[in-house]
Amino acid sequence: MARLLAVLWAVVFTAQAEAQILDLSKSKIVDLTHPYNADTIFWPTSPIRFEHTQLSYGDTPGGYFYSAYSFAMPEHGGTHMDAPIHFYRGKDTADKIALEKLVTQAYVVNVSPQADTDRNYRLSLNDIKAFEAIHGEITEGAAVLLRTDWSNHWPNTKAYLGDDTPGDTSKLSFPSFGPEAIGFLIKERQIALIGVDTASIDYGKSKDFMVHRIIGEANIPALENLTNLAALPATGAIIVALPTKIEGGSGGPARVIAFVPKN
After folding, report:
1. Which of 82, 119, 142, 182 qualifies as a cystine partner to 222, CB 3.0-4.6 A?
2. CA-based nearest residue to 254, from 222, 230, 232, 229
3. Domains located in the chain, CATH noted
4. Annotated catalytic residue within 86, 135, 153, 212
């Protein structure tokens, strides 16, 4: 019965021409999400951080325990999704992003050795070509996740962002995607989603946020502040990235997981 249920509750996706079925009994689930708490890292210009306020906690007159809280936070902080409208007028808001873009196969490009020696490293077209020479061509409708291992710095804001001065973005320093590589992935590979384990899909010193602008125009969502990318294979994982469905939102917190085939 357990085996039957595992197959019955499979995840079906169509990232390639043929539908495929993920047998959960043959997969492990990896959490790619940082928890929200007082240490959660937000962009330096965010007016507030994560606020979690207790409303009720304890035994009730009815004899049962009850707890409830309220929370408040900016859309862009912690593990979250940028909706295309974040940097491009008229594109999809958080509630309009097609689910097919959020549940798909993942390609994980590892540039952690380069980032280890250059904290301003940007994914290049040569990196993509080298990846495909080993792992094959990235397929249409896939997600490309950039692994820098920057999540090892979390939640040390200064180490993670390069600076911890509130309200100041002039000294930020961390690796991410490069515009040429993103342009290639969109035009030549027709990807559906990107993600990175740093604070932004543009590297820390960016002033023009070109990667945000390119993917926004292409109506592609992006994930920022991922974690545990080292637990994913270069190919073969399926990502499930579900942002809070904020009507008209420019993004929002997301619970991101991946299904990884067991060896």
Report:
1. 82
2. 222
3. 2-47+75-261 (3.50.30.50)
4. 86
